[in-house]
What we know:
Layout: E1 2-8, H1 11-22, E2 27-35, E3 41-49, H2 51-77, H3 82-91, H4 101-115, E4 117-118, E5 127-132, H5 139-152, E6 160-164, H6 172-183, E7 186-189, H7 193-202, E8 208-212, H8 221-231, E9 239-246, H9 251-261, E10 266-272, H10 281-290, E11 293-298, E12 307-309, H11 312-324
Parallel strand pairs: 4-11, 5-8, 5-9, 6-7, 6-8, 9-10, 10-11
Antiparallel strand pairs: 1-3, 2-3, 11-12
Helix pairs in contact: 5-6
Guanosine-5'-triphosphate (GTP) binds next to α5.
Amino acid sequence: xxxxxxxxxxxxxxxxxxxxxxxxxxxxxxxxxxxxxxxxxxxxxxxxxxxxxxxxxxxxxxxxxxxxxxxxxxxxxxxxxxxxxxxxxxxxxxxxxxxxxxxxxxxxxxxxxxxxxxxxxxxxxxxxxxxxxxxxxxxxxxxxxxxxxxxxxxxxxxxxxxxxxxxxxxxxxxxxxxxxxxxxxxxxxxxxxxxxxxxxxxxxxxxxxxxxxxxxxxxxxxxxxxxxxxxxxxxxxxxxxxxxxxxxxxxxxxxxxxxxxxxxxxxxxxxxxxxxxxxxxxxxxxxxxxxxxxxxxxxxxxxxxxxxxxxxxxxxxxxxxxxxxx
Length: 326
Ligand SMILES: Nc1nc2c(ncn2[C@@H]2O[C@H](COP(=O)(O)OP(=O)(O)OP(=O)(O)O)[C@@H](O)[C@H]2O)c(=O)[nH]1
Ligand SMILES: [Mg+2]
């Protein structure tokens, strides 16, 4: 048992304080009047209470607050935004999970897991897929990997055609042609929306048409307008637009990229350059706040090997690995 002293202006109020803290689990040990430094009389009571109850009532809240702060800091340092964290912690108020650090960490990771979205790979019906993104993000390399995957590496060979809308960059045609030739995949370079429509029709019985586009900075209005023209040329089949976003981009840039490219009605995000960073907090945070479905991860330069279908577990493992190092 633990003894604790309560002081108030009269003995009843002092006792009420004790009851308020512990309920009816207290035993009165003594009560007396004392003279305070200011000369006034006060009532002091001493009660006895079970040790575990004393620990819980006196330190439980403090330790919960400390654990919560520690965990919050950990996630903040890893790039998860305070907006999201505050939202999570608000919903946990008074919850005993706040006193258990490992449990709290796994709870938050589970919440992240639930909030992340995946766009499942689906080739059950013919598809037209256009890759867009900033300069050098990895669009052309990813197109080559996807082409190889669909044509050769799946349950059955799918019929693939490549269209190239990039006639800005010197060597862009050759770069995609080079891959197409090796894989013996049909490849056409396109200059106008008319040509684009004609070729979508020409390959309409193909399983997959992959479309490469010119790299655009989010501020490159001219290229944007041109690409929007292609996307909205009312082709017979819906064009799925995938944004290629490098995992290495910093948060503010991710937001700018997303805001500008979202004009193209994005259906998924392909995360590239997964192998070039160990810090995935920024990317996770971006995904948490914008809730974009992820379709593929590009994990290196090798065509066709360094590509995987988007996998939440894999992404979270990288994130946790990075947290564990601290
Ligand atoms: N480490 C690493 N490098 C990559 C990855 N994907 C692409 N790259 C490299 O990034 C560079 C640019 O790749 P591209 O595929 O040409 O990029 P792009 O988006 O087509 O570029 P632009 O057409 O100029 O806008 C090349 O050197 C690629 O080998 C990746 O997942 N990891
Ligand atoms: Mg390219």
